[in-house]
Design brief:
Helix content is 30%, strand content 20%. It is an alpha+beta fold and 634 residues long.
Length: 634
């Protein structure tokens, strides 16, 4: 059945072109505007463990301690929530009863599901996923909505029992003092003198300088114990009258008292109970700014200019990200669904991608793909790999067509010196299969390299002696496919046919250092190192040639990785070479799968010190050795 032909596009202008300037300005404002801050609020309560357990909470509140916090970053982790909760509640607990020796390091912070936040080690934002909800007009898209969450600072049961025993002991001591005071009162009933407060204060009471707020937070029986009645003449002998102290104490007791009887009490404190006035701390002397430095700063500020081109070339895409997993080769062989990189089976994450479209953003332009810098922002971030950071620097790769170079002077085709380099992107229908093939090649390269290291580690562990060389440890970059989707708003016409995918990108982990750290270790059509013996990183190229030997031998000559390139630790853009019997004339792993290379591997490969080590037990290959393929069994 022949494929349906698409009608040719309409030519010329339509009525929609008259709105071009208006739509351009509107989309420019939306595209480059800073995203709104995503914050949450917290309600933090003080509880002690040991409350009712039959179908109810295991904790009880105490002291009416409840505090609120707002403008908390929604991306905060459980580990970072713990100090916020403790710093908020601990000062309140101290004021609740300052005389008890609280052990704050035993306090725990829990959420409404009774999860201990200190034991929750995941770096993933703790509350962010609960703030995501389907958009009103597009249920498949998720939007952020700020919420309030409750946290409990919990006092352990053992410490709370110690606190209750401490309070009972103080209460019994207060009762003894009150009995003694009552005996004195009974002996002076005939005098009719006014009762005053004794200067003796229990040990658990705050000093006379304690604020009204501190006194109000103390337990009720603690505040009552402060009023011990003694005849006025005895009190006057003990402590002379002090009018200023009397007025301050009257105000303190009048504010903290909770019954009319306590409000009528007259207090005569001792001079030792009053605290000296607090001194205002001296401020540092004011110093005028340096005129020389100020002049230089003002000149620099005057010269600052906005890089308009850099701002206007930034584009933001709403994407669905599909990371490329690393699976063991045995798992791929056992499960037919894992035979290739599958978008339906891959985990997916929603986010945004910032694409720098300026010419200076291009890191490199190869023979088939371009590489430019970008910024990946997933919501929420992935647990590991690419996108695990809130703002992850990535490399965006796209295939392209390179037409003949145009000579601007003659407008003729050809490669004249100084001609302009032109790049033409593929259509979406052609670009997606090509990038999917690149992703699948990287998927298999990860599995084959993992198998190689498994063989190396197993051979070394079972060998009689350690090898006389170090094993370089490399891996392929973390990567994934990003599908950009259209975002429809009111007033824009939706397409009648097709989905919302408007672009596709291959995102890879960025190799730091640029071209200075990038090395081509082995070319695609070769099975020998591209570097000479005396060049830097030849040891890595030699080791990678050895990995080809291992992969070729352990797969029975069916497949190995080629086109090794990257830095000392990260590899990128591999090729998978397969035996001619695999593809039957078709491109299994893109056009770079040169089958003639693997067919002549035993002849052209040169065994090095890694291949020749007896512990690996590999057959020798080379021009003077007849190639004998090993069986698939290790």
């Amino acid at each position: 059945m022949s494929e349906p032909t698409m009608p040719p596009p309409r030519l010329g202008y339509t009525s929609q072109h008259s709105r071009y300037t208006q739509e351009y300005d509107r989309w420019a404002r939306w595209t480059y505007a800073s995203p709104p801050a995503e914050t949450i609020s917290l309600k933090i309560l003080a509880h002690y463990k040991g409350g009712p357990r039959r179908g109810r909470s295991q904790t009880m509140a105490f002291g009416n301690i409840c505090e609120g916090k707002k403008d908390i970053d929604a991306l905060i982790s459980a580990h970072d929530l713990v100090p916020i909760a403790l710093d908020t509640i601990i000062p309140k607990v101290k004021r609740f009863c300052p005389s008890f020796p609280w052990r704050f390091d035993e306090f725990t912070v829990r959420d409404t599901n009774w999860v201990d936040l200190a034991e929750h080690r995941s770096p993933v934002p703790f509350f962010y996923s609960q703030c995501l909800q389907p958009a009103h007009k597009n249920p498949k898209a998720m939007t952020f909505k700020s919420k309030q969450f409750t946290l409990y600072v919990v006092v352990p049961a053992a410490q709370w029992l110690e606190f209750e025993a401490f309070m009972e002991k103080e209460k019994s001591a207060d009762s003894t003092t009150e009995d003694a005071s009552a005996a004195i009162i009974s002996s002076d009933e005939g005098d009719g003198e006014q009762l005053t407060t004794s200067s003796h204060t229990p040990s658990m009471l705050p000093a006379a300088s304690t604020s009204t707020e501190d006194l109000a937070h103390c337990p009720f029986h603690t505040r009552v114990a402060q009023t011990t009645f003694v005849p006025a003449r005895i009190s006057s002998q003990i402590a002379p009258h002090n009018d200023e102290a009397m007025e301050a104490t009257d105000a303190l007791i009048g504010t903290a008292a909770t019954t009319p009887a306590m409000k009528q009490t007259v207090v005569s404190p001792t001079p030792a109970a009053t605290s000296p006035p607090r001194k205002i701390p001296a401020l540092a002397p004011f110093m005028s700014p340096s005129q020389t430095h100020l002049q230089e700063a003002l000149k620099s500020g005057r010269k600052s200019e906005l890089d308009v081109d850099n701002v206007l070339t930034q584009a933001f895409e709403t994407i669905q990200f599909y990371p490329i997993p690393t699976r063991p080769l045995a798992e791929i062989l056992e499960n037919p669904r894992y035979r290739s990189f599958n978008l339906d089976l891959s985990e997916t994450y929603t986010g945004r991608l910032r694409v720098d479209q300026s010419p200076k953003s291009f890191i490199g332009i190869g023979g088939f793909k371009t590489a430019q810098s970008g910024l990946l922002m997933l919501t929420p971030p992935s647990p590991s790999g690419l996108g695990s950071k809130v703002h992850d620097n990535v490399v965006i790769k796209r295939p392209f067509l390179r037409p003949p170079t145009l000579n601007p002077s003659t407008s003729s085709t050809g490669p004249p010196p100084g001609g302009l380099r032109r790049i033409i992107w593929f259509s979406l229908g052609d670009e997606l299969p090509k990038l999917y093939c690149e992703a699948n090649t990287l998927y298999w390269a990860k599995a084959l390299l993992t198998m190689t290291y498994d063989f190396i580690d197993s051979a070394i562990s079972s060998a009689a002696s350690v090898p006389p060389f170090k094993i370089p440890r490399l891996r392929f970059v973390e990567a994934g496919l990003a599908l950009a989707h259209l975002q429809f708003t009111k007033g824009l016409v939706k397409p009648k046919f097709g989905g919302t995918v408007c672009g596709v990108y291959l995102l890879e982990e960025k190799i730091e250092g640029g071209s200075a750290t990038f090395t081509k270790y082995i070319h695609n059509m070769d099975c020998r190192p591209s570097l000479s013996v005396h060049e830097d990183r030849y040891d890595i190229a030699e080791f990678l040639a050895f990995t080809q030997h291992v992969q070729y031998s352990k797969t029975g000559g069916l497949v190995f990785i080629s086109d090794y390139q990257g830095s000392r630790m990260l590899l990128t853009d591999p090729q998978i070479l397969t035996d001619p019997s695999i593809g039957n004339g078709s491109d299994v792993f893109s056009e770079g799968n040169v089958e003639s290379t693997i067919a002549s591997f035993e002849k052209h490969h040169e065994c090095n010190r890694f291949c020749k080590w007896p512990g690996f037990g590999l057959n020798k290959f080379g021009a003077a050795v007849t190639g004998v393929r090993e069986s698939l069994n290790p």
